[in-house]
Amino acid sequence: MTIIRRLGITFILLICYGIERPHSVEEWIVATGELQPASPSMILSGYQPILEADLEGDDMRECLFVHAGHAAILRLPCEENEASPPLWQSPDGWRVVRGMLTDLDGDGSTEATLLVWRPYQRWAIDAFLIHPGRLDSFQDDQGNSCHVILIGTRPSRPGLYRELWAGSAMAAPFLDLAAADLDRDGRQELVALEGDYQDNINNTGGALTVWQWNGFGFTLSSRVDGNFYSLQLVQNTDGKIHILTKR
């Protein structure tokens, strides 16, 4: 695994004054839980996912590193060596597409949110059902299904990293996702692009969706159908987070 010695944060400034945006770029906001088109903003700064935080509640910061389909949680300064092995790393067979540190479940603790492709497995309860395998079609032609997985620790075992929550195989796999407090209500939302299992690599795009934690999992709060294939969070001068998409 590649040794990471420093994680930098780069801010992107998009200056659009007097320059017309490409026709394919659209701008969205979330208000009262709904996706709404937004007027093109004059100046936006890139909103970067959080990759460093105190995950164990000990006033020490850890970092999330995602590279080439692999994810790992490391101690700062994010160096992996014999004296400082990963605190957690994704298992063999996982392909991690995206990762960020969040508090999507609203419990006050930071966890890693990962967008993962992994070999499809039936629910354990399927062994007892008369008609099992209701999710068997939720996989690609290589037998992999798409999941959102939360990795973190519990206050009673701060050094034990595990799956805090793992969603079932998705009916419509996510092409990409991001997390932020989109409507400034003090709670983070999950924004994602949906795709299709028939072509999960060169997908032409899908719906733009927003999800909220309901205490047991995620509930869809808003959807805009279309062939969206690009997702980026940006921040307006007043601090409001906008969603830039292409289709």
Can you characterise this structure?
This protein has strands at residues 13-15, 25-31, 34-37, 43-46, 52-53, 62-67, 70-75, 88-89, 95-102, 111-119, 144-154, 157-166, 174-180, 189-194, 206-213, 218-228, 230-235, 241-246. β17 (230-235) and β18 (241-246) form a beta hairpin. It is mainly beta and 247 residues long. The strands form four sheets. A six-stranded antiparallel beta sheet has the order 1-4-17-18-2-3, with no helix packed on it. A four-stranded antiparallel beta sheet has the order 5-6-7-8, with no helix packed on it. A four-stranded antiparallel beta sheet has the order 9-10-11-12, with no helix packed on it. Helix content is 0%, strand content 47%. It contains no helices and 18 strands. 30% of the residues are buried. Mean pLDDT is 83; it is low at 1-22. It is globular, with a radius of gyration of 19 Å. The protein has one domain (13-246).
The H-and-E topology, N to C, reads as: EEEEEEEEEEEEEEEEEE
Structural class: mainly beta
What integer value in Å does the Rg equal?
19 Å
Largest sheet: 6 strands, antiparallel
Shape: globular
